[in-house]
Design brief:
By secondary structure, this protein is mainly alpha-helical. It has two domains: 2-66, no CATH class; 70-189, Orthogonal Bundle (Lysozyme). It has nine helices and five strands, in the order αβββααααααααββ. The protein has helices at residues 2-14, 64-68, 71-80, 85-96, 116-121, 130-147, 152-161, 163-169, 176-189; strands at 26-29, 35-38, 47-48, 202-205, 211-214. It has a three-stranded antiparallel β-sheet. Strands 4-5 form a two-stranded antiparallel sheet.
C-alpha cells in the first residue's frame, strides 16, 4: 500500500504543468517509508521540492483516495454541527494536507491541527485519532462561525491565529501566515461563507475544566457569540 501511495503521488507530480512557480511544494518521507507532499508543511522534516508549486497546481491534486479516506467522518461531523462538508475539507487540506499525524512547529496536532490545550477543552483525548480530531475541530470552527456571524474570513482567521488576535486587530490580523491561510481556505471552499446559517452557541466551562458548546441556554451561564 505504501508503494502504491508513493507511485500515485509521483505520477501526480510528473503531470504538473511546467509553468508552475517553484516556491511552495514540500515532501517528507515518514518512518514507514510513505512519502507525503504538501504546500503547507506542518513538520520541520519537510523539504522543499525545487521547481514545483502545489498551490498553482491545485494543492498537488491530492489523490482521491487520500481525500476520501476521512469523507464519512467529515460529512458526519459537518452535518452534526451545521457546516458545509466542503468547508471542513478545505480547512483540513490547508491545515494538514489530510495527514492525521501532522504536528506543527508550534505543537498543533492532527488533521485539523488542534493545539493540546484547545483539544483538551473540547474533550478530545487523542488528537491523532481522525474521528476525535475532526469532531473537535468542527465544533471549534462552528463556534467561531457563530462568534463572527456572516463573516467566515474572521472565523477562519480566529481558527488560525486565535480570537484574541482578531479582536485586537478588529479583523484579520496583519500576519502573512494568517492572511494566506484565510485566502487558501476560501479559494478551496469557493465562497465567503455567506450561505452558512448562523445560530446562537453557548460556551461555558464545567467543574472539570472542560469547555462545553451547546445551543441550549445553560442556566445562569454567560452567552458568548
Amino acid at each position: 500500500m505504501h508503494r502504491a501511495f508513493l507511485t500515485a503521488a509521483l505520477i501526480v507530480l510528473a503531470t504538473l504543468p511546467e509553468r508552475v512557480a517553484a516556491s511552495s511544494s514540500f515532501q517528507l518521507t515518514d518512518p514507514d517509508g510513505v512519502t507525503h507532499f504538501t504546500n503547507a508543511p506542518t513538520d520541520p522534516r519537510y523539504r522543499r521540492i525545487p521547481g514545483l508549486s502545489g498551490t498553482a497546481a491545485g494543492w498537488l491534486r491530492l489523490p482521491e483516495a487520500v481525500r476520501a479516506r476521512y469523507g464519512d467522518e467529515i460529512r458526519e461531523a459537518a452535518e452534526r454541527h451545521g457546516l458545509p462538508p466542503a468547508l471542513v475539507e478545505s480547512v483540513i487540506r490547508v491545515e494538514s494536507a489530510f495527514n492525521p499525524r501532522a504536528v506543527s512547529p508550534k505543537g498543533a496536532q492532527g488533521l485539523m491541527q488542534l493545539m493540546p490545550q484547545t483539544a483538551s477543552s473540547l474533550g478530545v483525548r487523542d488528537s491523532f485519532d481522525p474521528r476525535q480530531n475532526i469532531e473537535g475541530g468542527v465544533r471549534h470552527l462552528r463556534y467561531l462561525v457563530d462568534r463572527y456571524p456572516g463573516n467566515l474570513p474572521f472565523a477562519l482567521a480566529a481558527y488560525n491565529a486565535g480570537e484574541g488576535a482578531v479582536s485586537a486587530h478588529r479583523g484579520i490580523p496583519p500576519y502573512a501566515e494568517t492572511q494566506q491561510y484565510v485566502r487558501r481556505v476560501l479559494e478551496l471552499h469557493g465562497g465567503d461563507g455567506g450561505g452558512i446559517p448562523a445560530r446562537v452557541i453557548y460556551r461555558f466551562e464545567n467543574s472539570e475544566g472542560t469547555i462545553i458548546y451547546t445551543n441550549v441556554p445553560p442556566a445562569n451561564r454567560f452567552r458568548l457569540r
